[in-house]
Amino acid sequence: MPWWLWIQVLSLDAPVVIVLWQAALAHTHRIYLPTSFYWGLGLVTWMVYLLDRTADAVSGRLPSPLSARHAFCLRHRKLLLRLVLPLGGVAMGWIAMTEMPSGLLEKGLSMAFLGCIYLACFSARRSSPLHTLLVGIAIMLAVVLIDGLPLPTAFKIAMGGIFSGIMAFAALGRLDPRWHALLPKEGIAAMLIALGCSAGVHFWATDNHAWICMEVFLIGGLFLLNLLGISTSEYTARLHADPDSMLHARPSLRRTHLWLVAALLVCSLYVAATNINAHHAPGVAATAITVAIAGLFSGILHLFVRRLRPELYHLLADAALIVPLPVLFWLMPN
């Protein structure tokens, strides 16, 4: 196995990319984030990816041969599920309770709820104990979150209904896999990633960013291109293809990837042009330009999707997200 593949095998690829994007966004918005925020985001991302890949490998739903990252998780599943992930959960809980302010903790609980439902819908639906555990954790998080919000009772009841509907959808997806055709897996994962790397920054930002704003949509679109490109590479090589991927339900998306790149470029450049002189949000234009450059790199890489082995494409696709980040520091100097 080549040395560069170990970052994927150990599930370190996504945490590195997301933490670097969080650091770049913090610099753009002139915000100093404590070191614990970076460790916390990296740890929770690593845990989610480990659990996702382990559950995928254990479920037996992936075609053979397994990818190197899934084979590693399958081989060490007992160590990961019985020791590594529980210890990581304890460390994450300690960081959340001791380092995060209450407002940001509420956002974290919301994303943890959505993350549990995501894993229950896709990765753990064929594993009854893990599915039950994740849904149970999601219910607990929903109760804590709704009860702690300073909202009227009617709004809390409405939110409870929404959360219940999401969990019912997860249950239906486990009973009938056709329900999963309605869920864009890569789209949900991309938005969770975008919310994760921006939530801490936007919480402290002085320009009044909403939890979901144009900056989040642009970053989410960029990560969607990344995930769809990786899935396309695996389907093209007919190796390790994920049956829950959007490409499985909508194969035509494999032929529209460059159109999606073009759409992201147009949206990013429009946002940059309309915010270039905006004094209330000076970092949005810089973020949009960086997203456009990273999207362009992703599009160029996709031209070689049939010539690169999936693992190498995966590595280069993640690199395409990181390489343009110095542009943010150049556009927004201290």
Word description of this protein:
Helix 2 packs antiparallel against helix 3 (35-59) and helix 2 packs parallel to helix 14 (310-322). This protein has 334 residues and is an all-alpha fold. The mean pLDDT is 79. The longest helix has 25 residues, at 35-59. Helices cover 74% and strands 0% of the residues. The protein has 15 helices and no strands. The protein has one domain (3-331). The N and C termini lie far apart (42 Å).
Rg from alpha-carbon coordinates:
20 Å
Helix content: over 70%
SSE succession: HHHHHHHHHHHHHHH
Tell me the count of domains. 1
Main sheet specs? none
**How large is the count of helical segments?**
15
Shape, per Cα inertia axes:
globular
> What low-confidence regions span 5 or more consecutive residues with pLDDT below 50?
none
What gap, in angstroms, lies between the N and C termini? Answer: 42 Å
pLDDT averaged over residues: 79
Distinctive features:
334 residues, 15 helices, mainly alpha, globular
What can be said about this structure in brief?
With about 325 residues, this protein is mostly helical.
